[in-house]
Each structure stands twice: as C-alpha cells, then as structure tokens.
Amino acid sequence: MKDVKIDETWKKVLKMEFQKPYWEELTEFVRQQYLSGKVYPPAKNVFRAFDLCPLDKVKVVIVGQDPYHGEKQANGLSFAVNDGITLPPSLKNIYKEIQNDIGITPMSTGDLSRWAKQGVLMLNSVLTVAANNPASHKEKGWEKFTDAVIKTLNENRQNIVYLLWGKYAHTKGEVINREKNLVLISAHPSPYSVQLFFGQHHFSRCNKYLKEHNLKQINWQ
C-alpha cells in the first residue's frame, strides 16, 4: 500500500479502502495522468477537503461531482475556486440563496476553506480531472472511494447535515440514516435547474438543526 497523504482521522477509518485492488488501479491511473499532462487540482490539494475537515469535526457535508477543469479553478473543495478566480455560475447561485435565505452577503472570494474549517466537508465524488476535459476521471475508482467516505461517516458519526443538490448527489446519499442525520435535497444550483434550488432554505434549516443538537452553527458568510 502506498502511503496516502490524508488527514490521520480519515486515514484510520479508510485504511481498508487503501488496500483494495481498485485503489491500486486508481492511484496508478492518477499518477500517470499527473505525469503525462495537466490535471486539477494540484496534487497536494487532492485530499484538501479531508485535511481541512477531520472526521470528528464534520457537521455538514456538501456533495459535488468532479473538480472544475479550468486553469487555477479547482482547489480540492467541491463548488469552490481559488481566491481571485471569477465565481462559477453554481457558486454564484449558492451565494444568492445564502443571501435570500439568511440575509447575509457571502464574501466575494470563492475559496470556501472558511466553511471547511468550521466543519463543512466539501466533498466531490471524483477528486481529479484532466485540464479542459470535464468528467475525464469518472468511473476510474474515485466514486467507490467517496461512497466509502459517506458510508464511513454514516457508521461513525451522527447529527450531520447532508446537503445533496441534484440527482447525482441524491443517489450518492442513499446510504445515509435519515433518523440520525438531517438530509436536505434539492435541484442542483447550476443555471439549468437553479429555480428549483432557490427558496429551499437549506442554509437556515441546516443551522437550525445544528442549534437544536447543541452544535455551533456555520457562518455561511
């Protein structure tokens, strides 16, 4: 087993995944991709979501699909982009909903590490992508790994709020125990389905649930 550079709390519970045949094939594929062309996010940020949000600190999970494939966009957190990069449409819509829902204006930066550090696991289903080639690393093994992440969270933690936006994320969250956690589902915040995303009040409902369970609410600014 190759040494996986991921936060220790996650490494401990996911160690069986790192010994499975699919993981070996996946890491070989990803390594070759980084060696032979441009891949996002930078290798050091592949597990950034986990490093910023250890297992025992997770309060909220936001599930995305795969990283942005444009120059300097992806930074290892779902829906986020690096500071100074123009906000993608989905993130703009997330910010609009936050403003309409809880009456605060989010910061102009798209780097969501400020949320991750409060306990928001910004989890993409696929953790790498080839430059300018969306979904190029899907079905290579990442989905199995991130399914295991959600399953592990479900088995080891409770009173977590899962924000599942779009059909893909809904499917990803089917294993979650609805009696021990809060699962909020809606359409995806992309421009194609955003009218069904707006008005769902996920951010206020999330904070209400956290408060009811004596957990510090998330500052969504």
What ranges have pLDDT less than 50 throughout 5 or more consecutive residues?
none
Taken in chain order, the helices and strands follow as HHEHEHHEEHEHEH
Overall SS class: alpha/beta
> What is the helix fraction of residues, given as a range?
25-40%
Widest beta sheet: strand line-up: 3-2-5-6
**Count of domain modules:** 1
* N- to C-terminal distance: 40 Å
CATH topology: Uracil-DNA Glycosylase, subunit E
Q: Average pLDDT across residues? A: 96
Query: Which percent range describes the beta-strand content?
Result: 5-15%
Would you report the number of β strands?
A: 6
CATH class: Alpha Beta
Please compute the radius of gyration using only Cα atoms: 17 Å
| CATH homology superfamily | Uracil-DNA glycosylase-like domain
- Outline, from the CA principal axes? globular
Looking at the overall shape, the CATH architecture is 3-Layer(aba) Sandwich
Largest sheet: 4 strands, parallel
Keywords: Cytoplasm, DNA damage, DNA repair, Hydrolase
Main location: cytoplasm
Enzyme class: hydrolase
GO molecular function, one term: uracil DNA N-glycosylase activity
